[in-house]
UniProtKB/TrEMBL annotation:
PANTHER family: ATP-BINDING PROTEIN RV3427C IN INSERTION SEQUENCE-RELATED, CHROMOSOMAL REPLICATION INITIATOR PROTEIN DNAA. GO terms for molecular function: ATP binding. It comes from Fictibacillus norfolkensis. This is ATP-binding protein. InterPro entries: AAA+_ATPase, IstB_ATP-bd, P-loop_NTPase. The lineage of its organism: Bacteria, Bacillati, Bacillota, Bacilli, Bacillales.
C-alpha cells in the first residue's frame, strides 16, 4: 500500500492546482503557499501541506492530508508489516516443533502432583522461571530438570512451555529423539538441512528439549549424537532452554559427551528431582 502523500502526487510548483484537487469543489482557493506542519510522530515540521486563502472570507487556512511525515508514516507501516511477518513465522515454527507427549497435553502447574518437599521446590523454581521469562528476563537462562520416570520432570517442563506459549512467547517442545531423527532425515533427502533445523530452533524464545541423553544409550553412533547436541546447545546460547533428563549429573556427561555437558551447564540451574536434599546446583 502506498502512503497517502505518495498517491496525492504533491505538486510543489503549483500548490493551488494540487489544493483544488484536495479540498471541496465549492471552495475556490485564491492564493496558496506551500507549508510545513509539525509531524504527530517525530514533532518536526516535516509534514507537507498548504496555507491558503479562499474567496469566502479571505482568511489564511491550513490544509494537510496526513498528520505524519513520510518518514514516520513509512517507519510505522514497515514496523507493523515486520511484526505481522514475524508472528506468522513464529506460528509456523510452533506448529512444526510442538511435539509434546499426548499424555501431557493438559499438564500444568495446577495439576502437578506434589508429594514431597523436593517436588514442591522444583515446582517453585520452574514457576519462578516462567514468571521471570514472561516479564522479559529469564532468570536463570536455562533449566536442567533431572529426575527418574514418574518424578514429574516432563510434566513441569510441559507446564512451563504451555504457560510461555499462552503468554505469547514463541515456544517449542521436542524430545531428544525428535531432534535427532529430524537431523537424520536432513541427511536422507529431508526438506530441511541440518543448518536450517538449527536456525529454526535458535529462533524460539523458549525451547524444551525433553529426555536429554536418552538416544545415546540406544545408538552406536554416540559421538555423532553428542556433536548434534553440542550444536543445539550452542545454537541456544543466549536463549532460554529447558532440558530434562532421567540421567543424573554423573551419567548425563557420559551420555551426551563432556563437551556438550560443560556448555549445557553455562547459565543453567539444575532442578534435581532425584535429590532428597533440595538445595539447587550450579547457580546456587
Ligand atoms: Zn515525523
Amino acid at each position: 500500500m502506498k502512503s497517502a502523500t505518495a498517491t496525492i502526487n504533491l505538486d510543489l510548483l503549483d500548490p493551488l492546482r494540487t489544493l483544488e484537487k484536495c479540498i471541496s469543489k465549492d471552495i475556490l482557493p485564491i492564493e496558496a503557499v506551500f507549508h510545513y506542519f509539525n509531524c504527530n510522530g517525530c514533532r518536526q515540521d516535516k509534514v507537507q501541506g498548504w496555507k491558503y486563502r479562499d474567496e469566502i472570507d479571505g482568511q489564511w487556512k491550513f490544509f494537510t492530508i496526513v498528520n505524519r511525515c513520510s518518514d514516520c508514516f513509512n517507519g510505522r507501516q514497515s514496523k507493523e508489516v515486520f511484526s505481522e511477518i514475524q508472528q506468522q513465522r513464529n506460528q509456523r515454527l510452533m506448529d512444526q516443533y510442538w511435539l509434546i507427549d499426548p499424555m501431557l497435553k493438559e499438564a500444568g502447574f495446577k495439576n502437578y502432583q506434589v508429594h514431597n518437599p523436593v517436588q514442591e521446590n522444583a515446582k517453585k523454581i520452574v514457576s519462578q522461571f516462567v514468571r521471570s521469562g514472561v516479564k522479559g528476563k529469564f532468570e536463570p537462562e536455562n533449566l536442567l530438570i533431572i529426575g527418574s520416570f514418574g518424578s514429574g520432570k516432563s510434566h513441569l517442563a510441559t507446564a512451563a512451555a504451555r504457560s510461555f506459549k499462552e503468554k505469547g512467547l514463541c515456544t517449542g517442545f521436542l524430545m531428544e529423539e525428535h531432534y535427532i531423527s529430524l537431523i537424520h532425515s536432513s541427511y536422507n533427502g529431508g526438506r530441511k538441512k541440518e543448518a536450517d533445523i538449527l536456525q529454526d530452533l535458535k529462533r524460539f524464545d523458549v525451547l524444551v528439549m525433553d529426555e536429554l541423553g536418552s538416544e545415546n544409550y540406544k545408538m552406536e553412533e554416540s559421538s555423532w549424537v553428542s556433536t548434534r547436541l553440542l550444536h543445539l546447545i550452542n545454537a541456544r546460547k543466549g536463549k532460554a532452554t529447558i532440558y530434562t533428563t532421567n540421567l543424573n549429573t554423573e551419567t548425563l556427561p557420559k551420555a551426551i559427551g563432556e563437551r556438550a555437558y560443560s556448555r549445557l551447564k553455562v547459565n543453567t540451574k539444575i532442578v534435581d528431582l532425584y535429590s532428597t536434599d533440595y538445595r539447587d546446583n550450579f547457580l546456587q
